[in-house]
Amino acid sequence: MGSEPASLDRIERWMLAAVTHPEGAAEGLRGPEAMSLIPEAARDLEDVVLPSANMTSEQRLQVYASMYYWRLIDILFEEHKTTHHILGADLFCDLARDYIHRHPSRSKNLALLGSSFPAYLAEEAEDVPHRDFVVEVARLERASEEVFDAARSPSIDQQELAAIPPESWAEAKLDFIPATRLLKFNYPVNAYVQSVKDGEEPEVPKPAPSWLLIYRHDWRVWRSDLTRAQAILLESLRRGDSLGEALAHTATQPGIDGEALAADVGGWFQKWTGLDLIRSIVV
Amino acid sequence: MTIPNRWGLPDLGLGMGLRTVHYQHILEHWPTIDWFEIISENYIDTEGRPLWFLDQIAERYPIVMHGVSMSIGSTDPIDVPFLKKLKALAERVKAVWLGDHVCWTGVAGINGHDLYPVPYNEESLRHMVERIRIVQDVMERPLVLENPSTYLTFRSSTISEAEFIARMAEESDCALLLDVNNVYVTCRNHDLDPKEYLKGFPYERVVQIHLAGHTDKGTHCIDTHDDHVIDAVWELYRAVMTEAGNRATLLEWDDKIPEFEVVHDEVKKAERFRKTATAAEEAGHGI
Question: How do B221-222 and A49-50 pair as beta strands?
């Protein structure tokens, strides 16, 4: 008591350090950051925060600390329900808390909170069971969020398509709308995610390569499994290769049937243009 | 009597917070409701489905923007790019007004995504007044700031929250959103009398009222927006309507959100208190 009141800036930095500590406000106000700002609070918190008739100063500070993790873990849960399903509530919450502590939000946009969660699960988190599979599920869920919020864009219409001379198609370069993501997995991730969404209790699958296109159509996010040939072709096109280059690249990959590719590719394009996935074609 | 607000902003009637679970119902039924309030940040940095719904709803209903991230009390620099996004959204939906809270939400570049209190003292007052003026210059309109629910008091506070808000509004010439549920919650948490809190509140600057439910934990209350409005808050609302006259009134329901009609019925309860205010006006006296 009796010391000079801290400045507004110091108070704010101190409070944020205290209420964002993963072990709660009591530990937070004794942590190095809070101690560097208002050390006297660790000795006598009432010097900074007054008690109320029913609550101590520490209990009052803890209200904010509890809400911080509760709110942000809930955001991650809403975005990663299948990851949560695999890990179970307790482990998911522990990992989410650790992630939030290591990667606090630096944006006003809460949709960005989980942007590094898959990488965290892959590289930083300790003791993640079925790590490789869990990371792939988290990547799918994160990509779905990104597609949900992605920028709007017009798509090419049938008239524009029809106006492209047949001889120009080989040189054509396709530009896809921003609301698309192409993902390659080492597990059948989409089948698992759908199974959980359907209320089933699937086993963690054995490794098997899979490819997935996530896209927005009619303002909803959709997931479409791809064949390997489709995925190689799309990846090549999205890299900026011309259609001719992409087809040639795809046809020469081991295990790809060039004749079947030539026969199928027209139908694929019909589907992708019908879903408004292509923004423009440059010839 | 009715105390007109200083800007002549309209009494929009009774509105609801626009929430995703109600989008489909609104587009299918176009319910009779006076206006909607949006959480501004839910429609910034996204061009997906929420904005598609909002565009349609904004064509038929007045929209008010209410934010949670302006962090007007923070000592971090003002986020001008964010303000420009807010301004663009306001123009897009023809927002009747826009606002945020008397609080800070982050510092040192980290966002806590909560409404944190400032110490109510001269330093905070000068800081916030200056920032409100800057924001109003950028936005080219008055900012409508809401009294927050708070859970702690800083020893370095030297004036009451109500006095702080009144002086802040006067010195910055901003408008106010009076959340009567927050008044109740804050007073419970700080051992104050809500009626005392409201004495002398600058109603000439109040353009909007918030109503909401909260969670009573016994030792304190949390502003959870997950239930019906309790009778004591309705009584405060009645007192404010009687004292200030009718104001645009909005019900917030953000967690465990029930069907549209349940929320709509809850806000319609406010009508009887607004009529009481009218009767008091006709009789030429307040309470």
Answer: unpaired
Closest-CA residue of chain B to A56: B152
Encode pLDDT of A212-226 as tens digits: 999 999 999 999 999
- Distance separating alpha carbons of residues B218 and A233, to the nearest angstrom: 62
Residues on chain A touching B73 (C-beta within 8 angstroms): 8, 12
Cα(B245)–Cα(B281) distance, rounded to whole angstroms?
A: 8
Inter-residue contact B1 to B282 (CB < 8 Å): no
B46 near A CB under 8 A: yes
Closest partner residue to A107 (CB to CB) among B73, B107, B111 is: B111
Rg over alpha carbons for chain B, rounded to the nearest Å, is 18
Whether B49 contacts chain A with CB within 8 A: yes
* pLDDT reported for residue B156: 97
Mean pLDDT over A240-247 rounds to 96
- Residues B118-126 have a mean pLDDT of 98
Amino acid of residue A227: T
B137 touches chain A (CB under 8 A): no
Q: Let me know: does B10 contact B249? Beta carbons within 8 Å.
A: no
Region for B156 from its dihedrals, namely left if φ exceeds 0, alpha if ψ lies in -120 to 50, beta otherwise: alpha
Closest Cα to residue B216, out of B192, B181, B244, B251?
B181
Interface ipTM? 0.94
A11·B104 Cβ contact <8 A: no
